Amino acid sequence: MVTLLERSGTDTSQINSGDTAWILVSSALVFIMAPGVGYFYSGMARSKNAVSLVFLCMIAMAIVSIQWMIWGYSLALSDTSTNPFIGDLTYGLLLYVGDKPHVNAPTIPGDVYALFQCMFAALTPALALGGAAERIRILPAVLFCFVWTTIVYDPIAYWSWAPKGWMNVMGSLDYAGGTPVHIASGFGALAFSLVLGKRQGFGSEKFAPHNYLNIILGTSLLWFGWFGFNGGSAVASNG
User: Fold this and answer.
1) Residue 205: helix, strand or coil by DSSP?
2) 70-73: long-range contacts at Cβ-Cβ below 8 A with a sequence spacing of 24 or more?
3) Number of Cβ atoms within 10 Å of the Cβ of 5
4) For 129-161, where are the alpha helices, taking DSSP H only?
5) Sign of CA dihedral 4, 87, 150, 105
6) How far apart are CA 113 and CA 26, in angstroms?
7) Other beta carbons within 10 Å of 150
8) Residue 87: left (phi > 0), alpha (psi -120 to 50), or beta?
9) Rounded Cα–Cα distance for residues 238 and 151 (Å)
10) Residue 52: per-residue pLDDT
11) CB of 122 closer than 8 Å to CB of 185
């Protein structure tokens, strides 16, 4: 069994500068998708809720980044855990990550891989917040992002991508987050909307998109970010 002291050593012989540069760029592109989601949702909502929706999507990015550092990365992508359902806390507080490459990304530093995967994790609850548009306060949204990422996103990401994850072991192929990002956020948004119920005034007030330019801007930012979301999922600059 590999000890923590052994893991703290770094073997950078396989690190490729081109791959590393591309994943850093891809991380920035995925980050752009967070305000993109916010602008898209804000344009689809009434004007009085527009700013709060953009703000909530950026809050999701901030909160999940903290969660990812504390234990999210280790729970979701641990390569030391033998559990088929959830990772261990070997990389809690991002200890023992450093330059040593993760087995999923052998040509880039481990901390760069952690950063790239953090952007995926942070974007996912922002997508789910669309199911609560105009019906949630900031503090409950903060709690939702932290708790939901821990008990929903992290396990599903582990199943899909971790070396010992049960779906990965069975041969499931998830290239760019179809299961932990899109399916999880979609069902999360549905559950969120069912729990919160209808908007106040639904059926008696006008609910119409207030700003089509915000919708177009948000869509453009999402499209732009997708070049990093999908292109970066090869975790290399290659064919």
Assistant:
1) strand
2) 71/150, 72/118, 72/121, 72/149, 72/150, 72/153, 72/154, 73/97, 73/114, 73/117, 73/118
3) 8
4) 138-148, 154-161
5) positive
6) 11
7) 17
8) beta
9) 34
10) 85
11) no
* pLDDT value at 13 more than 80: no
- Residues 199 and 195: their CA atoms lie apart, in Å, by 12
Q: Compute the Cα dihedral for 203, 206, 210, 216 and give only its sign.
A: positive
> What's the CA gap between 18 and 227, in Å, rounded?
16
When mean pLDDT is compared over 24-28, 132-136, 192-196, the highest value belongs to: 24-28
Structure confidence by residue, pLDDT tens digits, 54-103: 999 999 999 999 999 999 999 999 999 999 999 999 999 999 998 889 99
Q: Distance of CA 10 to CAs 71, 93, 114, Å?
A: 21, 18, 16
pLDDT for 138: 86
Residue holding tokens 């199943």? Answer: 159
CA-wise closest residue to 36 among 218, 226, 175: 218
Mean pLDDT over each residue of the chain, to the nearest integer: 89
| Rounded CA separation 27/37 (Å) | 16
CB-count burial class (<10 Å; 0-12, 13-18, 19+) for 90: middle
- Dist. CA 114–CA 97, nearest whole Å: 8
pLDDT at 51: 87
